[in-house]
């Protein structure tokens, strides 16, 4: 069985939890405390030398990177509904997951740090940091909004692991103060689509409780 090392408070761990739940994949969860630096321990770094969460182990396979974990779990569990084998659909899924990791996550993370992490640590948000990032965020959100004007989900009429991956960086969008209302198709997808998924709803309390927001 896939063993997953994570802390539900982090974006990428939430992504993996929601994605595994969506596809009904069995797994063993091992808690690694992010705020006490558990991800930097020698034992954990033997699994993921990047000292980042999450990571997964399946026999002799040690697999960091949240998107890789979702792809692998879908493959070994035959979750074709959420990771279709059609080469064109799968390429589109990969496109969005790569885009999320390289581009979307870093932009949303600025808002997460300023409006969620800093207050948790007793610090004030930096308005200049937000103002600097806002044009980039709106540009990226516009890309999503345009795509979601064409279909209910990112790759068509059915939810896939790509939707979970792209939603994860904005999983606390009210607390992050992400201006999703400026992008109505993105807002519809998140509020009426992602947040109505049972897998998303089941994994939300752990995030809120871990961050003291529940």
From TrEMBL:
Domain of life of the organism encoding this protein: Bacteria
Domain GST N-terminal: 1-81
Keywords of this entry: Transferase
Matching InterPro entries: Glutathione-S-Trfase_C-like, Glutathione-S-Trfase_C_sf, Glutathione_S-Trfase, Glutathione_S-Trfase_N, GST_C, Thioredoxin-like_sf
Keyword flag Transferase: yes
Entries under SUPFAM superfamilies matching the protein: GST C-terminal domain-like, Thioredoxin-like
One MF annotation (Gene Ontology) recorded for this entry: transferase activity
Domain (GST C-terminal) ranges: 86-213
Family indicated by similarity: Belongs to the GST superfamily.
Listed name of the protein: Glutathione S-transferase
Biological source species: Acidisphaera rubrifaciens HS-AP3
């Amino acid at each position: 069985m896939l063993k997953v090392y994570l802390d539900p408070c982090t974006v990428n761990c939430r992504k993996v939890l929601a994605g595994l739940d969506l596809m009904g994949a069995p797994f063993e969860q091992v808690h690694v405390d992010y705020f006490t630096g558990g991800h930097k321990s020698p034992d954990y770094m033997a699994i993921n030398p990047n000292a980042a969460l999450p990571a997964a182990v399946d026999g002799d396979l040690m697999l960091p990177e949240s998107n890789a974990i979702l792809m692998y779990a879908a493959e070994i569990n035959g979750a074709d509904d959420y990771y279709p084998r059609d080469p064109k659909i799968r390429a589109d899924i990969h496109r969005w997951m790569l885009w999320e990791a390289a581009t979307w996550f870093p932009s949303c993370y600025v808002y997460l740090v300023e409006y969620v992490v800093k207050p948790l640590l007793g610090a004030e948000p930096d308005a200049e940091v937000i103002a600097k990032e806002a044009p980039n965020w709106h540009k990226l959100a516009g890309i999503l909004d345009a795509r979601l004007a064409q279909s209910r989900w990112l790759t068509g009429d059915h939810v896939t692991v790509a939707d979970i991956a792209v939603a994860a960086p904005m999983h606390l969008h009210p607390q992050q103060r992400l201006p999703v209302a400026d992008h109505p198709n993105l807002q519809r997808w998140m509020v009426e689509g992602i947040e109505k998924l049972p897998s998303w709803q089941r994994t939300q309390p752990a995030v809120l409780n871990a961050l003291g927001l529940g």
